[in-house]
Write a structure and sequence with these properties.
about 240 residues, alpha/beta, 9 helices, about 45% helix, about 10% strand
Length: about 240
Amino acid sequence: MRNNSGLTTIGFDADDTLWQNEQFFRMTEKHFAAMLADHGEAGHISARLLEAERRNLAVYGFGIKGFTLSMIETAIEVTQGHVPASVISAILDAGREMLSHPIEALPHAREAVEKLAGAFRLVLITKGDLFDQERKLAQSGLGDLFDAVEIVSDKNAATYARLFSRHGDGPARSMMVGNSLKSDVVPAIEAGGWGVHVPHELTWVLEHVEAPVAEPRFRLISDLGQLPGLVDSIMNPG
């Protein structure tokens, strides 16, 4: 690929961009609601769980361990402190199962990363639990294609400005690719870079914001198979 745009660095989100993630949270949430069926309808239990997750993000951060603790907290709340030890045990088992679930790559993920590797500096930028994200990256077989891996507590404009300066030539010459408008796309554009949205059907509700359609550096693709062509069009306009 010839590079006439100044683009030198491409960042990739991991969960629900390169591999499945949210579907396992949804499956576990349904199982959790079934455990507490005597204390409320599934929709009510899920709403209480979401409230706990929202409260706890600043304390536990993102990921399965925080989700598991929020399930335990919710179980205590909805049972008014009378949750059986067997339910707590089942919640812990569900969390452990999530932490050991095999990786399921999303369509075109490997091909897209392989096509862009070498021509650009590739940086995996993901948030969540360190051990879990390292496990998933190792299982994915994609680790060797990235020039750097950053597992962060949150993603905002300052995060991208710092990481794209550390691993590239600054955000203006960088692109971030991900399924979350809130975490991957909008803050990357705010930092001065390109933001490419690859929607996933199960993006977490706390990651929803409006698409920045008026921003000249915003792009939307249906899957990662379209990414190399998009990058080429940006590099060589007209």
